[in-house]
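S.,

Sequence below, as promised.
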Amino acid sequence: MSTLHVALALLVAVTWGLAFVATRIALDSLSAPQLTALRFILAAVPAAFLARPAVSWSILIAIGATLFTGQFLFQFFAISGGMPPGLAATVVQTQALFTIVLAALTLGQWPTPPQIVGSLIALGGLGVIAATLGEGLTVMGLLLTLGSAVSWGIGNVLLKRLPAVEVLSLVVWTSLVPPVPALALSLWLDRVSFPAALARASPAAIVASLYLGVIATVGAYALWGVLLRRYPAATVTPFALLVPVVAAAASSMVFGERFGPGRLIGMAMILLGLTVIVLGVTPRGVRHMSGGVESLEPLPAVSSATRADAPGVIALMGRVYAEYGFVYEPVREVPDLFDFGRHYEAPGGAFFVVRRGAVVVGSAGVERLDATTAELHRLYLDRDLRGRGVGQALATAVLDWCRSHAIARVILWSDTRFEHAHRLYLRMGFRPTGERELPGDVNHTREYRFERAV
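The prediction came back faster than expected:
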């Protein structure tokens, strides 16, 4: 990352860390439902100027209800009930554990060894913190904070099913959801109405609320989205580990929050567990290796391919076929790559590759079928790159080409045994629409058909 982008990532982490202090200040004047409503009313203002992301209202509402409404209602109730902000910032990060469990149960994305180890360490830290109940920490405060983490984890899993969308647009439009249930809850629970609470709020509470809605939500997520578009997630997400550190330090300075030895040990264990999960680092300090390549290796970029890349794609497919024990006869299996120009050169199609040095390690092609339909072909990756966002980047390049050429619909066929690819297609909004068997195929191939609107 460039120096500027490192600085921006640090700025986002500090912004989100200070949000826990701003929350405590705002809650001195507003109830948890009122602050939730105000934060997201402010965050939703740009929806008047930004187009709605290309996802259904039901999905937007589901994400808004979990990623924002549930997460922050639980979190604000916990802090207003006495949960120390610095401790809340650490405990809520256990969302990573719940995300791993929920992704395994719903998406079939089973955890890697570092994720299992990291989760166990973090759970141990949570147990150590639970042992400090009574020292400014209540059972209800801890349970509400964990409820925030669970809701966040559910939202993360829903996000994994989305096609590629603009982060800022998604954040702004899902911010339309929380004010409705939050204001309804306020009418039920609060003695002071929302308008009256705003009129009586201290200047510090108003400034803190503006900070939460405009800076910590819209501004910080916009910057985070820019960084995620420019760099692999594995490069950007480690900066989020600084959020609880900043929150704890700021809460200590502003509110005098103190952490006894047991609580410090528990917080350190949670942060260590998160580090193992995010970075793939084992407790012995060795990075998790996948196919001999470190998981933090900068991911190669997607680039347009020419017919000169066809031999490299053929070789890549040979490696994948060998991995699955398939018989590979290139002339029979991939005739399109031997006639590259007719299938993948303008205006009828395009091809994209990922290279490591001179070796093609990822590929995807697209071919126009008629005026409004195209077919995605040859999405293959070397094993060490799977699950790291490269396949999604290649598929996104195909979808971007389709949009630029007024293609309305994309289809693809995928071998029924390529389960990892199927999970990617589902996350990106493709839906299964059929199945076929290739007659006389030496590998006894059956294929699923997937389709999505562009």
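The longest strand covers residues 359-368.

Coffee later?
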